[in-house]
Amino acid sequence: MSGAAASRGDFTLTEQPVLSRNALVRDENLRLDPEYVRDSWPKARVVVVDESGRTPVDWQTDPDREFREGDAAAWDAAAGRDGRIRTRAGSDVAPEPPTEAVLLGEADGVPYWAVRVGSAKTADSDVFAGGPGEWTDLRAAGAFLDPLGSGLLTGAVATLNWHERARFCAVDGTRTRPQNAGWARRCENGHEEYPRTDPAIICLVHDGADRVLLARQPVWPVGRYSVLAGFVESGESLEACVQREIAEEVGIDVTDVRYLGSQAWPFPRSLMVGFHAIGDPEAPLRLAEGEIAEALWITRAQLRAALARGDWGSRDGDAGQPDTDPVVMLPGTVSIARTMLESWAAAGD
């Protein structure tokens, strides 16, 4: 790192955000090929997603009782588990692709599709004759899935959610029907719509040296903090959005806006675009009412201590920490925010 870059606190992500991992090959030409669509179904594997966005996942190491009950230590210990989505053969689901099915892509020559089912209970009895997996959603399991599973579930949830919200044409209000193997919908008058992605920025604000800015939304429990984020407005660049959102949420100006990475966040259809920027820790913080309950600057050492406590930020066993240190709970590993914070903490070595 050059002296000039180091003076601005420049850094890069130390690892890929977990929901950016994807071993699935997407190909628009295959979706437009009726012969491929028809012939791929009998040899396809199908991702089944219930009405709550959950799918069955098999773990190499079964979760123990504490993990199932949400114990923080067990959750941290489980972080190394290798989760794989349980799929079903296309020919066992239906003789041909259902109307609402989505062709997700291929991996190692195997086509993968996604379908929605009414509930996990129905799917367990009607879809998985071999017995149920552990039904879980992307927020809970995304960080622990293999790259194929991450890509499958991210694409399935995002696209199936869009189908549920696009049943009527935005132009004339007539009913729409799926096209292009689930990647478009066409209304009765021929208007086409495509899966929508709403870009949002997420920015780690630091002072160019040894302090980082964290904030808490009012709906979060006391002590839970993350970096700042917000949606991109029409006609706005990503960099301009960073500057506007930071000014609106905490009342400070930032400079040296730099791109870090991105991650799909299909809740229901966002793309989180990560940046870092420099702010002045001496500038007064003016919190946006109703959006930000607390904001504070902490040192790199304090951030490292919070990261060492795990996703839940418990102070148990932290007797060596001064009582003046803030209790900070950080985002879980499924979020790009966690990757950004870990990368900035590591950059100070």
Could you provide a short overview of the structure?
One of its GO terms (molecular function) is NADH pyrophosphatase activity. It comes from Pseudonocardia autotrophica (Amycolata autotrophica). The chain has helices at 3-7, 28-31, 34-40, 65-68, 72-77, 90-93, 120-126, 138-141, 147-165, 238-250, 300-308, 336-346; strands at 45-49, 54-59, 83-85, 88-89, 102-107, 110-116, 134-137, 176-179, 184-187, 192-193, 198-206, 211-216, 228-231, 254-265, 270-279, 294-299.
Number of domains: 2
Helix content: 25-40%
User: Within the CATH hierarchy, at the fold level, what is the topology of the largest domain?
Assistant: Nucleoside Triphosphate Pyrophosphohydrolase
Structural class category:
alpha+beta
* Alpha carbon gap, first and last residue: 12 Å
Radius of gyration, in Å, reads 22 Å
The CATH fourth-level homologous superfamily of the largest domain: Nucleoside Triphosphate Pyrophosphohydrolase
Strand order of the largest sheet: 4-1-6-5
Range of strand content: 25-35%
Average predicted local confidence, pLDDT: 86
Shape: globular
Number of helices: 12
- What are the secondary-structure elements, in order, as H or E? HHHEEHHEEHEEHEHHEEEEEEHEEEHH
Oligomeric state as shown: single chain
Largest sheet: 4 strands, mixed
Written description of the protein model:
Helix 11 (300-308) crosses helix 12. This protein folds into 2 domains: 3-16 and 197-346, Nucleoside Triphosphate Pyrophosphohydrolase (Alpha-Beta Complex); 33-165, no CATH class. Helix content is 27%, strand content 26%. The protein has a 4-stranded mixed beta sheet with strand order 4-1-6-5. A 4-stranded mixed beta sheet has the order 13-11-15-14, sandwiched between helices. A 3-stranded antiparallel beta sheet has the order 3-2-7. With 349 residues, the protein is an alpha+beta fold. The chain is built from 12 helices and 16 strands.
